[in-house]
Amino acid sequence: MTIDTLPWDPVEHLTSDMARKAYLEAAFADGDPKLIAAALGDIARSKGVSSLARESGLSRDAIYKTFHAEGNPTLGSVSKLAAALGYRLSVTEIAKP
Question: Could you say which residues of the chain have pLDDT below 50?
Fold first, then answer.
């Protein structure tokens, strides 16, 4: 028996700032750089890439190409996009058991 599946786009579920923040926090908690890049790209698409390109100083093409699962964003581009999304990167100590 085969299982029918449908395409799933997380952008359809990123309709509030709270949902976007939770999604990004989950990606950072996982720690996989590719997942973090993809999550930032998904959030950018949910907010509108054109407006974020203007706010961040990154081109629309750079956002699409850099922030997906196979992208490799620089710290500078992550910082610029995060700021345009209303986030700030910070360092938090890992809790020790």
Answer: none
pLDDT, tens only, 24-38? 999 999 989 999 999
Q: Are 41 and 14 in contact (CB under 8 A)?
A: no
Question: Residue 82: what pLDDT?
Answer: 93
Q: 35 and 41 in contact (C-beta within 8 Å)?
A: no
In CATH terms, the fold of domain 33-87 is 434 Repressor (Amino-terminal Domain) (1.10.260)
